[in-house]
Amino acid sequence: MICVKDLFFRYPGKRHDLLRGIELKIKKGSITGLIGINGSGKTTLFQILLGILRAEQGLIEIAGYPLAKLPKELVGFLPERPYYHGNFTLKEYLYYLGKISSRQVKEEELEQIIATVDLAGYCNQYIRSFSKGMLQRVGLAQTLLHQPELIIMDEITSGLDPIGQNQLKEIILRIKQSGTTVLISSHHLAQIEQICDQICLLHNGKTRTLTQEYFKIKNRYQLILEGKEEELKEKLQHLSTHDKLVLNKNRLTFEFSNDQEYFDILSCLLKAKIKIINMQANYATLEEIVLKYLAEEGDG
């Protein structure tokens, strides 16, 4: 759906390029999260993809079209801080937006779009009475009016409470199920981690796809063991895997790089006749991966 190669961009009057050789590939029908610290260029990259800003050099193709020849109806955009005319009801507003868009929206299509964003019960309410979360869903409805193949969303969960964030997450997953490609930026890394098929970190003008292999993150397990801490410590000291085990009271945490190492550790515990009451996977979170990468890059 999106192919970006060797993209460079510099704002007028600046000495250095903000984007320096951006590479980005996004599959059709997927959800891709774009993350990065404030000022890294996420919104700038979106504006380039939308044709608002022009890159100095680089190749951009969307849905097989060069950016200059892209039919605008193929893309929908929801900015971080959208503005709506409060003196319209929801249905009136979307109806008139449909009238001025590239295609006329039928009554049943409009109702389906409103239902998709969970606003079916608010069709005749004035937009000025809507909460921030509801306004974000109005924006999503607006982006869906012309049935785009790609939707770009910029920080749409900013300022939302946990309930509003969860509602948006469910709606985005619903949009993906219809075959629409979604590119989204957010500082809520836990939510990005839950819904995205691919996550790209934009940092120092370049993008990097985040994978466990790239960061050499190990899998982690936490076990709850039967017995007192002192007894367990004595048994664990004699195990060949002792250096990989961390005991806190009766909670044992260990890391492993591959399946064989995982089975070896469990086998050692069983041989020592240590009973496992509970086992819980504890994988590295996206936040840990990002902070680890930034620390390695010298950014705190």
List the helices and strands and how they pair.
Layout: E1 2-9, E2 19-26, E3 31-35, H1 42-49, E4 57-62, E5 65-66, E6 75-78, H2 90-100, H3 107-116, H4 132-144, E7 150-154, H5 162-177, E8 181-185, H6 189-195, E9 198-203, E10 206-209, H7 212-215, E11 219-225, H8 229-236, E12 245-248, E13 251-256, H9 259-271, E14 276-281, H10 286-296
Parallel strand pairs: 3-8, 3-9, 6-7, 7-8
Antiparallel strand pairs: 1-2, 1-4, 4-5, 9-10, 11-13, 11-14, 12-13
Q: Given this structure, which CATH class of the largest domain is correct?
A: Alpha Beta
Low-confidence stretches: none
Please summarize the sheet with the most strands: 6 strands, mixed
Helix content: 25-40%
E-strand count? 14
Within the CATH hierarchy, at the fold level, what is the topology of the largest domain?
Rossmann fold
> How many angstroms separate the termini?
35 Å
Alpha-carbon Rg, integer: 24 Å
What structural class do you assign from the helix and strand content? alpha/beta
The CATH architecture of the largest domain: 3-Layer(aba) Sandwich
CATH superfamily of the largest domain: P-loop containing nucleotide triphosphate hydrolases
Overall geometric form: globular
- Could you tell me the strand content as a percent range? 25-35%
Counted by DSSP, the helix tally is 10
SSE topology string: EEEHEEEHHHEHEHEEHEHEEHEH
Mean pLDDT: 86
Which strand order does the major sheet show? 6-7-8-3-9-10
What is the total domain count? 2
